Amino acid sequence: MTITHNLGFPRIGADRELKKALEAYWHGDIDQQALLDTGRQLRRQHWLRQHQAGLDLIPTGDFAWYDQVLTLSATVGNIPARHRQGATAADSTARDNCCGGTAPNVTEFSSEPCADIDLDTLFRAARGRAPTGQATSASEMTKWFDTNYHYLVPEFHAGQHFALSWTQIIEETREAVALGYQAKPVIIGPLTYLWLGKEKGAGFDRLDLLENLLPAYEQLLDALAQTGAQWVQIDEPILVLDLPDRWRQAFEGVYHRLQHSGIKTLLATYFGALGDNLSTAVNLPVAGLHVDGVRGSAQLLHVVDRLPGHKVLSVGAINGRNIWRNDLDASLAQLRPLHERLGERLWVAPSCSLLHSPVDLEREQKLPSDIKHWLAFATQKVGEVVALGRLLNDPQDAQAQQPLAQSRAAVVGRRESARIHNPEVKARCERITPTLAQRQSPFSERIRQQQALLQLPLYPTTTIGSFPQTPAIRQARRGFKQGQLNEAEYTQRMRQEIADAIARQERIGLDVLVHGEAERNDMVEYFGEQLDGYAFTQYGWVQSYGSRCVKPPIIFGDVSRPKAMTVNWTRYAQSLTKKPVKGMLTGPITMLFWSFVRDDQPLADTANQIALALRDEVLDLEAAGIKVIQIDEPAIREGLPLREQERAHYLDWAVNAFRLSAAGVQDETQIHTHMCYSEFNDIIEAIAQLDADVITIETSRSQGDLLEAFESFKYPNHIGPGVYDIHSPNVPEVDAMVSIMARAARELPAEHLWVNPDCGLKTRQWPETEAALVNMVKAAQTLRERVTEGVAG
After folding, report:
1. How far apart are CA 296 and CA 294, in angstroms?
2. Separation of alpha carbons 627 and 787, rounded Å
3. Which pLDDT does position 475 carry in this prediction?
């Protein structure tokens, strides 16, 4: 019989219960026991949901209080000293290692579990602050492979040792087994874990820590075997990357060492094909291998040809990252030849964890019925996995006939729908020429005109766009949607918020202002709601990081802009001040990748449609007198293919889409873009090709590391290194911000540098926001004074 299983289920809850409990705990509204109870209730609900759907193996360890990488860091004792219990401010400058001493010259490391790791330790690592303990700098955060999910980057030090120190996954697996479930604990593999981290300190390679890390994994696997679980899923998604030979060669020794724990290992890969890592993966001493049958469908027969006869092959046949209902007939056509060869050694699962999908489609009551019929969320995807397993075991299985019929109807419905195709949009895209993506003059000429018009000081200050979304703002927006406020009343409320934001910025002394985005629910959803070709959910929440959730819109058809989306709000804000106010837009690549995107045409075609719609908005903003327009593209790096050979094509069309959206303006109109929490070193030339006049990036959590790409490349245009971490409630110190800017000024001309936070401020509250921005303006003033003193000297 074909086994069905899941690689992971969304942890946040159908009603974002975990988000609400986390934030209530952080704010002091509930105690830790209430938070723990919420987590326990959610896990039990999710296990029961999957069991009732008919899955054979239920994942455990997919629940995390912030993210799964941080959970593993705690599990193996790799929590920096500054975040642990009893940490003092001095620990922030001391050497951070997991279970050893914290003094700068310590070389001896303890192998005992860290007794000073608790739940608040995780939150200090994630946020820089928890209800207990010393506030400090949070860990760096970046994107999980090519998704919009974030994780906290592990920090590694030379000579570091590890030990089993946080038993969350063990306790949760024991709990699931006690409830009668066939539990399959899920952990990140040791090589992927090391790959995801960063060395702190020079002179060593984090792969050198492998021998020190493996004893913690052996301890963990032994403990999991004692829970009664028969299988463990070890995720090694780096096997779909272009790996250096040394990393690839390390796999065999690692899994030879880890095979003696008494629990069978399913090695899981996802997000692509194995490619040149295929031989390594199939020959590892593990009991089973999971491969991505969606992104790596072409590899399946090659995997079967090379798979040893005793091993299980798990095929991810259901797309874990998008929300379209599966074509069960197509999946069966893919799986049946494999089933004929493998029999019961073939397992079926989603392609990856369902963390990237909303929880349950059935709750959606406002989606058009035909579009809803085309979709499947996490709960429905589990049902699709079970249906595939049943149909492979018995093509006439009665319980699988209804989902099979629904799948067939959805395929026909999408193919024949009049909603999807707009001839005018397609005709406009066919008329795109290279000149549409070219500014009138090169940057060196444009910037002189912009400076003459804007009259900004050295080190101009600005923010990324959004300001705190207060309860009053949320209440007004909710009241408008529910009909409790009419349009005039709502507009007046939002104008009051905009006026307040402008007044606060002028008091603080910022140079380029923003209207604050009070009217916006989300930077993608807000625009999608005003574009044709998009659909929206009520409960389609997906976790982005920690308690931060987004509700991605659904691109189901050709995209166009019926009318202006932001002009009235921005024009009003500009009328309140003589300082320039930025028009704020979300760029075409971010609109693409932060939506659930249609899968019936190339991504480049959809990107061009969005770019043309945004181009219309940019030109309308310029015509309304807005001289600074920011087109945010935080997703451009995450869209980068994981394999080098596929990247040039992606960057070509992605860069062109951005330029298409921005290039219609006059030279004196200044175009900004913003990117955050991404590695830029390998795409820095493409970022320069965007030809934005000003780019703002994150540099605070990485202590300026991300700035290295812009320094070594000699980035030609203007740049704003984010000088403080908006995801932490801590108010930044002036000296710390000056230090980041001073580092930038060592390699980049001072006249090219802007001063700004590292991201939008919507998740913060006004007191901490104003205090942070006051300090930021002081930092800019300090920098200007240093330049003046230098000139005078």
Report:
1. 5
2. 27
3. 93
3-class secondary-structure state, position 316 = strand
Which of 734, 710, 709, 737 is CA-nearest to residue 723? 737
Contact assessment for residue 633 and residue 675, using Cβ atoms and an 8 Å cutoff = yes
Active-site residue flag, 260: no
Query: For residue 597, what are the contacts with CB-CB under 8 A and spacing of at least 6?
Result: 322, 555, 603, 606
3-16+45-416: CATH topology is TIM Barrel (3.20.20)
Q: What backbone torsions phi and psi does residue 317 show, to the nearest 5 degrees?
A: -90, -15
Q: Among 113-122, 164-173, 177-186, 637-646, where is mean pLDDT lowest?
A: 113-122
* Residue of 150, 155, 166, 76 whose CA lies nearest to 118: 166
Distances (CA, A) of 596 to 221, 323, 466, 599, 748: 36, 7, 23, 9, 38
Q: Which of 510, 531, 520, 426 is nearest to 473 (CA)?
A: 520
Could you give the CA distance from residue 453 to residue 695 in angstroms, rounded to a whole number? 19
Distance CA 500, CA 494 (A): 10
Task: Tell me which of 26-35, 51-60, 753-762 is least confident.
Answer: 753-762
Rg, C-alpha atoms of the chain: 26
> DSSP 3-state assignment of 596?
strand
Any idea where the domains of the chain sit in the sequence?
3-16+45-416, 424-471+498-788
Looking at 3.40.50.970, 1.10.443.10, 3.20.20.210, 3.40.50.1390, the CATH number of the domain 424-471+498-788 comes to: 3.20.20.210
Query: 46, 83, 515, 727: which one is catalytic?
Result: 727
What pLDDT digit, counting tens, does each position of 691-716 carry?
999 998 877 666 566 667 766 777 88
Q: Indicate the Cα dihedral angle 200, 205, 210, 213, nearest 10°.
A: -10
- Local structure of 474: helix, strand or coil: helix
pTM of the predicted model as reported, rounded to 2 decimal places: 0.90
